[in-house]
TrEMBL record:
InterPro entries: Mannose-1P_guanyltransferase (IPR050486), NTP_transferase_dom (IPR005835), Nucleotide-diphossugar_trans (IPR029044). This is D-glycero-alpha-D-manno-heptose 1-phosphate guanylyltransferase. GO terms for molecular function: nucleotidyltransferase activity. Pfam families: NTP_transferase. Keywords: Nucleotidyltransferase, Transferase. The keyword Cell cycle does not apply.
Length: 237
């Protein structure tokens, strides 16, 4: 199993507490946030990780090197300019050996505890072009709702002014090489452009809802909370 870690964002909302490094390298109890994610992936059989890097990406490469210290083979795909999520995925795929059918894609500033092999299995068993892992939240108003009907994605990024429980995009995907090859060159958003387009085209997108520990360290309060949770042993894989 192979994975792409999207690590090229500028992390502007976290600059007040993490100003000298890319967000995935934010210190959490003596080691960078991304190390927790890499250990989680390696512990579940992911053997090749390609970091999609941009802002201060050299710090990530210097730390993780060839990946051997962490039980993986690490590669790096640099963005000369911001490419958006889909553009970064396509650029990262070019740095990988072409011998893959599907690849796991994750945000390198988010920790979502789960069985990663389930995402691959979901995609393979249902012959999906793309499998998405969703998250249930108590109030969908802050987010765009993602809707599954019998395991197939039927709604995505749908805004609602209604306070109610619902499911949102968890930012973990298993995507076929064919779909990645179909992404146009340049700056392209996966969430705002490619997923809506693929749904319109009738591509087979589906997934499931995962209940594991979830946190995005994009704002200072959540970054601090992850540090406390990691120290308390709540961050497991």
């Amino acid at each position: 199993m192979k994975a792409i870690l999207l690590a090229g964002g500028l992390g502007t909302r976290l600059r007040s507490v993490v100003a000298d490094r890319p967000k995935p390298m934010a210190d959490v109890n003596g080691k960078p946030f991304a190390e927790y994610l890499v250990h989680a992936l390696a512990s579940q059989g992911i053997r090749e990780i390609t970091f999609a890097v941009g802002y201060l990406g050299e710090m990530i490469e210097e730390y993780f090197g060839d990946g051997s210290k962490f039980g993986v083979k690490a590669r790096y795909a640099y963005e000369k300019e911001l490419l958006g999520t889909a553009g970064a995925i396509k650029n990262a795929a070019k740095a990988m050996d072409p011998d893959f059918d599907r690849v796991l894609v994750l945000n390198a500033d988010t920790f979502y505890a789960m069985d990663y092999s389930r995402c691959f299995a979901c995609a393979e068993e249902q012959d999906l072009d793309m499998a998405l892992v969703l998250r249930e939240v108590p109030d969908i108003r802050r987010y765009g709702e993602a809707v599954l009907t019998d395991g197939i994605l039927t709604g995505f990024n749908e805004k609602s002014g209604e306070e109610r429980r619902g499911t949102i995009n968890g930012g973990v995907y298993c995507i076929t090489k064919e779909r990645i090859d179909a992404i146009p060159d340049g700056k392209v958003s996966l969430e705002n452009e490619m997923i809506p387009l693929w749904m319109k085209e009738g591509r087979k997108l589906g997934g499931y809802v995962e209940k594991g520990y979830f946190i995005d360290i994009g704002v200072p309060e959540d970054y601090a909370r992850f540090g406390r949770d990691a120290a308390d042993g709540k961050v497991i894989w």
